[in-house]
Write a structure and sequence with these properties.
The protein has helices at 42-46, 79-85, 104-117, 130-142, 157-165, 177-191, 201-207, 209-217, 234-248, 268-274, 301-310, 320-333, 340-354, 376-382, 393-399, and strands at residues 2-6, 12-13, 29-33, 75-77, 90-94, 123-126, 146-151, 169-173, 194-195, 225-229, 257-263, 314-318, 364-368. With 402 residues, it is α/β, with parallel strands linked by helices. The structure holds pyridoxal-5'-phosphate (PLP) and zinc ion (ZN).
Length: 402
């Protein structure tokens, strides 16, 4: 049993209402469960495979979900990078290992399942890329049409390729992500499509399982810190919300410091934290090589600021050079291939350790959010091209300087 509750004024709504914002105050809604009545234990969960659906008692879906087997992603111990930074307990949860290659799949398995349960027959989103790739795949699995709005020219090649191949109607607008989101929100309200951006309360329910899995993978230990790249700030809010539920259920007894990392050219959440603002000031013109977090007006900022402040966490910005440098380090020193936005979390840890904000004794889980192959163009720009030679051994030995 659950209700939809406004995060701002606590107004309550019945779960079957198609609603993305509070009718009273316009703020976002969140899913609130009757946790006291919930009969669930860690033992029940640990008997199931590691996946989003291990935690189904804390998910809103009643029937059979629309699933492509999302979640259950590896948690890697970053031994080499950790040694360099001086943090021995540094981990990366590789969300690029989800079916469509990003954590958005955790949200979409729940979001598209709810779309069907609510009787919706078409879905839509605005996207910096990964949301569209994921929605297109889950809509295909569900057998319903999807419409996706992208900022023209600002979406990584692999993500557009996925949205197109999975059969979504892909529209590129001459404007940025924030404008695309306003437009698709209006479209959904006026034409009855189901909106699956992170304003959708059900989608974030799926994403909170990143935190559940990481704790399970650490043998039930709560890390000292969770570090996430922040775009719309849905993911960091979702992970924190999940932790509050585990806390209420008595499954954890403390909170990790929730830490959000943004790019230097798109850092409204960092500014709000550093300046102690109650509300964030949108950036009309965000810019970064990490296109997945190229967002100037994060819709979940209110929840994210609360998550960071209540857990004694922080927010920090890293430059595009730091992001790309860490993308290369993860690839070359750990064998982990991620897209630029994902590397921001680990780059942020390095920067915060150097600034003395993060203690070297901390046990830290970085969420790396999307796969290397999402953005091949940014990879190719950073690496020397293959050496082309004649097809004989002498040329090969000479090219290898042997
Ligand atoms: C969506 C996305 C983000 C940002 O997540 P938010 O919930 O919008 O803060 C970060 N990295 C990647 C790869 C993403 O796809
Ligand atoms: Zn309200």
């Amino acid at each position: 049993m659950y209700r939809l509750v406004c995060v701002h004024c606590a107004a309550e709504y019945a779960p079957e209402q198609i609603l993305y914002t509070c009718e009273r105050c316009g703020h976002l809604l969140t899913v609130s469960y009757a946790l006291d009545d919930l009969a669930v234990t860690r033992d029940v969960w640990s008997e199931r495979p590691l996946s989003v659906w291990r935690y189904r008692e804390l998910l809103p879906v009643q029937g059979e979900p629309v699933t492509l087997r999302e979640g259950g992603t590896p948690l890697y111990h970053l031994r080499s990078i950790g040694r360099e930074i001086g943090v021995s307990e540094l981990y990366a949860k590789h969300e690029g290992m989800n079916p469509s290659g990003s954590f958005k799949d955790r949200g979409m398995t729940v979001g598209v399942s709810m779309a069907l349960e609510l009787g919706m027959r078409s879905v839509a989103c605005a996207s910096t890329g990964n949301t569209s790739a994921s929605l297109a795949a889950y809509a295909a699995k569900a057998g319903i049409p999807a419409v996706v709005l992208l900022p023209a020219g600002k979406v990584a090649l692999g993500k557009v390729a996925q949205a197109l191949m999975h059969g979504a109607r892909v529209i590129a607008i001459r404007g940025n992500f924030d404008r695309a989101l306003e437009m698709v929100h209006e479209l959904c309200l006026s034409h009855g499509l189901y909106l699956l951006n992170s304003v959708n309360p059900f989608r974030l329910e799926g994403q909170k399982t990143i935190g559940f899995e990481a704790i399970d993978q650490l043998g039930g230990c709560v890390p000292d810190r969770f570090v996430l790249p922040v775009g719309n700030a849905g993911n960091i809010s979702a992970v924190y919300k999940g932790l509050t539920e585990l806390h209420t259920l008595g499954m954890i007894d403390r909170y990790p410091m929730m830490t959000g990392i943004q790019a230097a050219g798109a850092r409204p959440v960092v500014d709000a934290i550093e300046q102690g603002l109650a509300e964030l000031v949108p950036d009309p013109d965000p810019e970064t090589v990490a296109t997945a977090i190229r967002i100037g007006a994060p819709v979940n900022a209110e929840k994210a600021l609360a998550a960071i402040r209540k857990t004694g966490g922080t927010a920090a910005a890293v430059t595009d050079e730091e992001i790309l440098g860490m993308q290369r380090d993860l690839a070359r020193k750990e064998g982990i291939g991620v897209e630029p936005a994902s590397a921001a979390s680990v780059a942020g840890v390095r920067a915060l350790v150097e600034r003395g904000v993060i203690d070297r004794d901390e046990r830290i889980v970085c969420v790396v959010t999307g796969h290397l192959l999402k953005d091949p163009e940014t990879v190719v720009k950073q690496c020397a091209p293959p050496v082309e030679i004649d097809a004989d051994l002498r040329s090969l030995l000479s090219a290898l300087r042997l």
